[in-house]
Amino acid sequence: MSSVLMLVMLQGVAAWPAFAAELDATVPAGQAEVVVQQPAEPALPAKSEFEVVVPEYVRALTSFENGRNDSNPVWSPNGKLIAFERSHGEKREIVIEQLDGAQLQTIYFQLSGLEKDSKQSQFFLPGMTEDPSYNSGVSWAKDAGRVAFMSNGGEGNYDIYSQVLGGAIQRLTDDREKDGLADWSPTGNQIVFISGRSGRGDVYLLEPDKHVVRQITRGDKPYLYPRWSPDGKKIAFIYGSTENHDIYVIDDLARPFDSLRQLTRWRYDDLRPSWSPDGRMIAFYTNFNAAGDLKKWALAVIHTDGSDGENGMHLEAQIVATDVIPDIEQGPAWLPDGSGLVYVRDDELEYNPIHIVDIASRKISLLKTDTKMNHDIACGANGLIAFRAQHEQWDQIFIAKLKK
Fold first, then answer.
1. For each of the chain's 404 residues, which pLDDT tens digit applies?
2. Distance, CA of 38 to CA of 316 (rounded, Å)
3. How far is CA 190 from CA 47, 86, 139, 206, in A?
4. For residue 289, which of 319, 251, 258, 256 has the smallest C-alpha distance?
5. 167 lies in some domain
6. Terminal-to-terminal C-alpha distance of the chain
7. Backbone phi, then psi, for 318, in 5-degree steps?
8. Which of 50, 174, 306, 393 is found 20 to 30 A from 193 (Cα to Cα)?
9. What is the DSSP string of 231-260?
10. Of the candidates 194, 196, 278, which has an alpha carbon nearest to the alpha carbon of residue 234?
11. Alpha carbon of 8 to those of 186, 327, 378: distances in Å?
12. Sign of the CA dihedral running 341, 269, 374, 73
């Protein structure tokens, strides 16, 4: 099983990326697999050398409630709203709130009996038990007035949906194969997503108002986690199988197959590309480490022009933080000015604390939040940091504000 799938399963969504199962490990034509010697681990600060950053405040977004888990916060483009996922047992809904914790709406899509399976009874009887619906993967439209998400509607297959805040839910895809991992363009009305309809897991573009879908990749292995560049002109994603995914970019969406470019090309697993706010760099998780431990992860930052390393082979110099817990739902979290990344350190003795790494100096600081078992870091345009942490064994969303 690939490491990306293992991480997805740990996040509780093993049912979603069925098309990302182990496939033929054939390397695409013209892309020779590269084997490099094991390099030394980059020199990064020791744990005792971390400077402590005390935020202006840390507070819970909502009141605490046992029996539910909140996760995966996503800021609206203007930083005024925040969406997150809330689980009650197997049921997962999307909650949208203001920064003061006032709840605007809850998204929980449930297909009717007719929609679920036309071969079953044509009657949807009151009192019948519905299968829990799983709604996740929120992405905001550029005007912050509409969201896209994926849902199985309680019937096991995932499609892309959208909702104008306060309006009705609109189904955007309707395919027998799974569609998901949607990302709304930051500059236009297009959504990039992954679909299994090609038989593998390829990248598609969707115009939500016209329901026009266009395939922009063709591969022998799955593509995953597409993300728009800040200017809305390029798309980054990962491609691969088993224990080796690499970072790719499409530079020109008018000719996607001709402008596909590989940014990393080594034997380590690279996951979840995240563009810097200025679009000049991409951060990602990699299991590069001197010990060769596939379960240990680091943060790397590379320039999007491909100038780092020799065709992306020797990237150890681009490691900015080690002992990192990957967040494959949202990816590495950039500070809004692009100066650094906020991440969770893999340190169970300290309850997985939050750290900040400065990209230019590689200086790492501990963000003192006094929370434990942190995860799901998201930085908003408002300068606030949202994250998930445990409170009495249940996951809750917290907000931290850095001092200016």
1. 344 433 343 333 333 343 333 323 323 333 333 333 445 556 565 555 789 999 999 999 999 989 999 999 999 999 999 999 999 988 999 999 999 999 999 999 998 754 555 323 233 333 444 688 999 999 999 999 999 999 999 887 899 999 999 999 999 999 989 999 999 999 999 999 999 998 889 999 999 988 899 999 998 999 999 999 999 999 999 999 878 999 999 999 999 999 999 999 998 999 999 999 999 999 999 999 888 899 999 999 999 998 888 778 888 999 999 999 999 898 999 999 999 999 999 999 999 999 999 999 999 999 999 999 999 999 999 999 999 999 999 999 999 999 88
2. 10
3. 43, 27, 12, 6
4. 319
5. yes
6. 45
7. -95, 5
8. 306
9. TSS-EEEEEEETTEEEEEEES-TTSTTTSE
10. 278
11. 25, 10, 18
12. positive
Q: Return the amino acid letter for 229.
A: S
Q: How far apart are CA 160 and CA 79, in angstroms?
A: 24
Can you give the C-alpha Rg of the chain in angstroms? 21
- Residue ranges making up the domain that contains 243: 3-26+50-120+129-401
d(CA 387, CA 374): 7
SS3 call for 316: helix
**Sequential DSSP letters for 317-345:** GGEEE-SB---TTT--EE-TTSSEEEEEB
Q: What are phi and psi of 49, to 5 degrees?
A: -90, -5
CATH of the domain at 179: 2.120.10.30
Tokens 């297009």 found at: 190
Say if 88 falls within a structural domain: yes
Tokens, residue 357: 């790494």
Q: Are 270 and 243 in contact (CB under 8 A)?
A: no
Domain tally for the chain? Answer: 1
Which residue is associated with the tokens 């709840």?
103
Give the tokens for residue 326. 């990957």
41 in a structural domain: no
Contact 181, 3 (CB under 8 A): no
Inside any domain, residue 81: yes
Helix, coil or strand: residue 7 = helix
Structure-block tokens of residue 127: 């009192």
The neighbour count for residue 383, using CB atoms within 10 Å, is: 14
